């Protein structure tokens, strides 16, 4: 009787229900645990951000004061090098501290940080005043100012408040870490219970399968019949997948159209923000205090950056979705075209552009123009101070060694294009990072841009079934190498209408 019950349909229904219950319970707990972990990690990040910011500011104040003392004691302006470099970043560090305070988990922390920033300004101004007096030959006045205890009092106040802020954040950090460890222990215990439950279910399934093994024998003939029909079913499924692929391509096109509309709709409120901001700046400049003017300038700069980001993101997405059919493209003509576009920038910088013979390849002409435009523009932008920019573009057949790691290397003839410059360069450890979207090696105040130009370059090269790499060192320029087929079709193309259905 028991065997019949166990082998019945109801036993399987009960088992399925149990499995669903266990999976649901485990999933719920996993999601809850992940949410708690994410919240704790976010709090730890916030706390670490405040700690790092105030400590960097503390070090900066010490470096400025150290440079002042060294200069006054020796009269050697070499001590002012570190002093000057530190002063150039103090404002940025103060902004970072101010921003980090807004998300602190500690009550009234923002008030203490605001007081710390006020003391920082006062201390920095006192140091600058002493240095400037000494530079002007007013050594006695400078010494009197140093001996007035003003600077010592300011630093003691700064140091006391810094230690209070740092200590409170570190205490909060310890609390978050303790909670995180407790949550992890609970997760381990739950994992053990879940594993035991799963093992029990597996044993139950095994027993049921053993009990029902004889029942399955009578269905063997039906199974053989199903196997005979499997080939036709696979054919039908293949047809369904083909239809699905076409539908997916259509969905990708609709998604790209949506991205375009969304970007347009996002640009409109940004234009209004910038327009009204400009009106405030021009029409109400005399009634807005300095802090308000600073906030207004930050708002306008942020709106400008947002507009650039939206435009660049749209351009990035269109590399694959709006690519054109490949045709024979003379790269020499492409470079001549972008030289015309960059004529003003080249003349302003008195740049020298050296171009050797370039081959004709199959590709998307507009995207290849964008590729060379981005690379040459970067070379002109990141020039070394006081050095005339020089850019060299050359090409040759790629060697077998250079193409050995490329997919389908044997199917195409390859050419290697190099774009070299004598600019500021970068550390070789960043050679891969620079091709990721929004990755910048320099601050926005130094060089304009969104950090997406080289990401677009990589995407264009990959759509042409090639690869792009960079070799550089600080102060010695950079060389970008592009290995690209001479006779390929777009990556991800259906080769029917020129549209791509997979992002490269």
Write a brief structural summary.
The protein has 504 residues and is an alpha+beta fold. The chain has helices at residues 2-6, 9-74, 79-101, 109-135, 139-146, 150-211, 213-217, 220-228, 230-283, 290-321, 331-341, 343-349, 365-381, 400-403, 453-463; strands at residues 327-330, 352-355, 360-363, 390-397, 414-421, 467-472, 478-485. It has a five-stranded mixed sheet with strand order 2-4-5-7-6, covered by helices on one side. It has a two-stranded antiparallel sheet with strand order 1-3.
Q: What can you tell me about this protein's structure?
A:
The chain has 504 residues and is α+β, with helices and mostly antiparallel strands. It folds into three domains: 24-189, Four Helix Bundle (Hemerythrin (Met), subunit A); 230-317, Helix Hairpins (Orthogonal Bundle), CATH 1.10.287; 325-485, Histidine kinase-like ATPase, C-terminal domain (Heat Shock Protein 90). 68% of the residues lie in helices and 8% in strands. The chain contains 15 helices and seven strands. Strands 2-4-5-7-6 form a five-stranded mixed sheet, covered by helices on one side. A two-stranded antiparallel sheet has the order 1-3. Strand 6 (467-472) and strand 7 form a beta hairpin. Helix 2 packs parallel to helix 4 (109-135) and helix 10 runs parallel beside helix 15. The longest helix has 66 residues, at 9-74. The two termini are 62 Å apart. The relative contact order is 0.06. Residues 494-504 have low confidence and may be disordered.
């Amino acid at each position: 009787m028991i065997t019949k019950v166990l082998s019945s349909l109801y036993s399987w229904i009960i088992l399925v229900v149990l499995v669903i219950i266990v999976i649901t319970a485990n999933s719920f707990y996993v999601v809850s645990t992940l949410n708690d972990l994410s919240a704790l990690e976010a709090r730890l990040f916030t706390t670490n951000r405040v700690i790092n910011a105030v400590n960097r500011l503390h070090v900066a104040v010490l470096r400025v004061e150290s440079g002042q003392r060294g200069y006054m004691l020796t009269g050697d302006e070499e001590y002012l090098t570190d002093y000057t470099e530190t002063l150039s970043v103090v404002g940025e560090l103060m902004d970072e501290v101010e921003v980090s305070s807004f998300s602190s988990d500690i009550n009234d922390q923002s008030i203490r940080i605001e007081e710390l920033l006020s003391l920082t300004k006062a201390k920095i101004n006192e140091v600058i005043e002493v240095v400037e007096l000494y530079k002007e030959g007013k050594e006695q006045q400078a010494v009197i100012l140093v001996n007035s205890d003003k600077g010592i009092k300011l630093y003691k106040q700064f140091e006391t408040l810094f230690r209070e802020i740092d200590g409170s954040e570190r205490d909060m950090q310890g609390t978050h870490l303790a909670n995180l460890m407790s949550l992890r222990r609970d997760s381990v215990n739950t994992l053990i219970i879940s594993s035991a439950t799963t093992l029990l279910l597996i044993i139950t399934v095994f027993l049921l399968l053993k009990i029902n093994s004889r029942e399955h024998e009578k269905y063997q003939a039906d199974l053989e019949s199903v196997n005979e029909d499997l080939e036709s079913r696979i054919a039908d499924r293949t047809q369904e997948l083909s239809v699905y692929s076409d539908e997916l391509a259509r969905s990708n096109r609709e998604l790209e159209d949506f991205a375009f509309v969304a970007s347009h709709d996002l640009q409109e409120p940004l234009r209004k923000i910038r327009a009204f901001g400009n009106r405030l700046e021009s029409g109400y400049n005399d009634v807005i205090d300095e802090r308000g003017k600073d906030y207004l300038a930050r708002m306008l700069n942020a709106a400008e950056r947002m507009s650039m980001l939206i435009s660049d993101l749209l351009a990035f997405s269109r590399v694959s979705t709006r690519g054109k059919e490949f045709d024979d493209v003379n790269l020499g003509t492409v470079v001549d075209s972008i030289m015309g576009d960059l004529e003003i920038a080249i003349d302003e910088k008195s740049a020298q552009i050296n171009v050797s013979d370039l081959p004709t390849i199959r590709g998307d002409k507009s995207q290849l123009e964008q590729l060379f435009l981005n690379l040459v523009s970067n070379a002109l932008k990141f020039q070394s101070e006081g050095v005339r920019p020089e850019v060299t573009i050359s090409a040759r057949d790629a060697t077998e060694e250079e193409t050995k790691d490329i997919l389908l290397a044997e199917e195409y003839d390859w050419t290697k294009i190099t774009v070299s410059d004598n600019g500021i360069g970068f550390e070789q450890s960043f050679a891969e990072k620079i091709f990721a979207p929004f990755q910048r090696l320099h601050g926005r105040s130094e060089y304009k841009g969104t950090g997406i130009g080289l990401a677009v370059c990589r995407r264009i090269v990959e759509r042409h079934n090639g690869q792009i790499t960079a070799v550089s060192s600080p102060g010695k320029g950079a060389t970008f190498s592009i290995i690209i087929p001479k006779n390929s079709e777009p990556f991800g193309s259906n080769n029917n209408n020129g549209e791509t259905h997979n992002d490269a």
